Input
Amino acid sequence: MLKWPLYDLPFEPTLLYWLGGISIFDREETLGEALWVYNPNDSADREKIIRVFLLGKLEYLPYRHRFLMFKILEDALAQSDFDFSTQFESDYEANTSMAWDETEIVDPRGFFEDVYKYAREEWKEDLKKASLEDQSTW
Output
């Protein structure tokens, strides 16, 4: 079983992990302020948000972890009726508050499609390397 890089805990990612870089719970004055200068509905701003705040925050993950994250996203995108807006909902009991809530993202599926596109570009070699391995041995 694949473990977290720094912890002896199973690595079982969910789609919400992709948005960790824009979760501003208890960081509204720092991370929130840095993010709110961008419009997540503008394609150029969205690319910056994804590359810097989402993918940039996942650089520490090894290639196998990235592969699993990518597969979670790919599986969700394969479901035509998947409601991506729920990923932007805040859950204060779970200490989760997104920089933009589900009412502010015009096309939540499109947002995740862009995440997929940029992750596929930036992680190309990692995804290829992991795909050639027997994942059942992880």
